[in-house]
Amino acid sequence: MEEDVRTLAEALRRAGNGLVVAVTGAGVSAASGLPTFRGKDLGAIWSRDVTEVGTFRYFQRDPVAWWQWFADRFAGIAEARPNAGHAALVALERWQSARRGDFLLITQNIDSLHEDAGSRRLIKVHGSANRVRCSRHGCLNGAPSGSLPVADSGLDAFLADPRRESLPRCPACGSLLRPHALLFDEYYEEHTDYGYSEVRRSLERMALVLFVGTSFSVGVTELVLREALGWRLPAFSIDPAAAPPAPGITGLRAAAEEILPAVCRELGIEDAAPTP
């Protein structure tokens, strides 16, 4: 791993004050005890019935079963804590800012571990598990720009007594509340919080991209990857199990919570430990 650490650290130095883009997937949160989304492990969230269950169409057909499925798949997400990989990304953001550079973290994850760790320039392209929104488009609590804290949703009461009568409903219009998350039959542009327009604008200034723990199975990774390869920019993929998805990407076969703190040490960054 030492050679990979030196290679990535030197590439980050050469990026100068350009925009460093980090794109994270579920792999970065695995060390925090959260399951991955795809893959061979038995806990993979989307390992079965993806196109049927993980959709708004299924939610409309059977919201009781859907909310139970969602709560079961994301059990423990509120109790999870940032790991060394999250902390190292915060440290890299501070380091890049200190030398008058730019840094943007784009995450596919709906957990709050990046913001809990202290990330500032953060776009959550798939939404947030700690918020819900009205299922009626145009409601002040719904798309294209509204949402509510999950603590104000009544979801706990439903999960304690899961039936149609106890489903969480919008306080403004009475429609069903849904997760504030991008589902498989929806589009990035459906809600402003997904920040897809900002992602597209930012890629025009990208100097280096670092993919961390992603399976490259969603639209945003395809977009960033295409831009990086098209401009022949330095591109790295941190994944302990998988080879890089395309020629031109440097694969670093290591866990994020191991290699990212090592890169910070190579750069002389000392404060890359997670907050207890």
Provide an overview of this structure.
The protein has 276 residues and is α/β, with parallel strands linked by helices. It folds into 2 domains: 1-34 and 82-126 and 192-276, 3-Layer(aba) Sandwich (Rossmann fold), CATH 3.40.50.1220; 39-75 and 129-181, SIR2/SIRT2 'Small Domain' (2-Layer Sandwich), CATH 3.30.1600. The chain is built from 10 helices and 9 strands. It has helices spanning 2-14, 50-53, 56-61, 63-73, 84-98, 113-117, 155-160, 196-203, 219-230, 256-266; strands at 19-24, 102-107, 122-124, 127-134, 148-149, 177-181, 206-212, 235-238, 250-252. The strands form 2 sheets. Strands 3-2-1-7-8-9 form a 6-stranded parallel β-sheet, with helices on both faces. The chain has a 3-stranded antiparallel β-sheet with strand order 5-4-6, with no helix packed on it. Strand 7 (206-212), helix 9 and strand 8 form a beta-alpha-beta unit. Helix 1 (2-14) crosses helix 10 (256-266) and helix 5 (84-98) packs parallel to helix 10 (256-266). The longest helix is centred in the N-terminal third of the chain and has 15 residues, at 84-98. It is elongated. The model is unreliable at 38-47 (pLDDT under 50).
